[in-house]
Amino acid sequence: MVTQRITDFLATRRPEGPCLVVDLDVVEENFRAFRRALPDSAIFYAVKANPAPEILKLLASLGSNFDCASVAEIEMALDAGVTPARISYGNTIKKERDVARAHDLGVSLFAVDCVEEVEKIARSAPGARVFCRVLTNGEGAEWPLSRKFGCVPAMAVDVLVTANRLGLKATGVSFHVGSQQTDTNAWDSAIADAKFVFDALAEKGIVLTLVNMGGGFPTRYLKDVPASSAYGQAIFQSLTKHFGNRLPETIIEPGRGMVGDAGVIKTEVVLVSKKSATDENRWVFLDIGKFGGLAETMDEAIRYPIVTPRDGDAMEPCVLAGPTCDSADVMYEKTPYPLPVSLTVGDELLIEGTGAYTTTYASVAFNGFEPLKAYVI
């Protein structure tokens, strides 16, 4: 959302070139909303969504824990002021030397999804706690996750038994229902799978205690999404449905839902043109595209709200593209984006809902364009 603080910042600072501006007040509001929605779940912010030091320090001060995908992210979280006990190494694909480094830094909670990963952790982080990620179908998510992560529940049983045998602490189960998940009931079948694994391990004398329910909590783009409280209610109902009165320890890992609506990208129209005299759609080229931070427009999965200085004028659909010399750098063509007919070169647009997965997706210098600048206010 374009908050007054963001509007004032852009008006007074007039930053040159495309940039992201994040309002920390919105981040704090989102954190408190998650805490109210699921008061008994520990919040582990997904650092990959936006690792700006100001965001990490704020969340650390509010009591957040951190889900990290690399040693670099672990070091960022530590620099923000949290103890290693508040960090999870949530990537299921880790080099053994990175496992060792994380262990040396004091991190003791690791994600796995296969026996081979368990064996690496047993060698490099003896005695660590591990949770096994199970597959989900991702239905209802605008940015579904693939079969790259997780294993079927039956295999998760074998993975955790092996972990126990190798001296690790088999702690629990994790899953991710897909990013920008708009179905509040999407967690139900995954929680049922977690209970299956819990029961199977209990029969083998291994008591699991943790269900990591992942992320997936959405931010608002062009469509309204359910409130955090709706997700909290649905998830709690599923937990009690499958676990009864003996509820496990639970974790949630909001990323997009924590910072997405806190950020706005300022961009400039570079060119407006057509490909022929009979072309039905104008092409509008911006100074930012897929390689500058808008990677989630791939397959037009995420459709961002766009504010223009000419809103209120007549609208026509257009193809929206980025500035680079790559034909893939087109954001919206399959479903053209409606923008004012009067839009012209030099107009500045605001792309809302861009606080998550933009700066971290931006290329370093493709075509010589600078990485996306970011300001946290």
From TrEMBL:
Gene3D superfamilies this protein is in? Answer: Alanine racemase, Lyase, Ornithine Decarboxylase, Chain A, domain 1
- UniProt keyword annotation of Nucleotidyltransferase present: no
UniProt keyword terms in alphabetical order: Lyase, Pyridoxal phosphate
Q: Where is the signal peptide, in residue numbers?
A: none
As stated in the Swiss-Prot or TrEMBL entry, residues carrying the post-translational modification N6-(pyridoxal phosphate)lysine are K48
Give the pathway listed in the UniProt entry for this protein.
Amine and polyamine biosynthesis; putrescine biosynthesis via L-ornithine pathway; putrescine from L-ornithine: step 1/1
The record's EC number reads: 4.1.1.17
Please give an example of a GO cellular component term from this record.
cytoplasm
Q: Which cofactor does it need?
A: pyridoxal 5'-phosphate
Recorded catalytic reaction(s): these are: L-ornithine + H(+) = putrescine + CO2
Q: What Gene Ontology biological process does one annotation of this record name?
A: putrescine biosynthetic process from arginine, via ornithine
Q: Which gene holds the coding sequence for this protein?
A: odc2
Q: Would I find Oxidoreductase among this entry's keywords?
A: no
Organism encoding this protein: Jiella avicenniae
A molecular function annotated in GO for this UniProt entry is: ornithine decarboxylase activity
Residues of the active site are C325
**UniProt domain Orn/DAP/Arg decarboxylase 2 N-terminal: residue ranges:** 25-259
Pfam families cross-referenced by the UniProt entry: Orn_Arg_deC_N (PF02784)
- The transmembrane segments are none
The identity of this protein, by name, is ornithine decarboxylase
- Similarity remark: Belongs to the Orn/Lys/Arg decarboxylase class-II family.
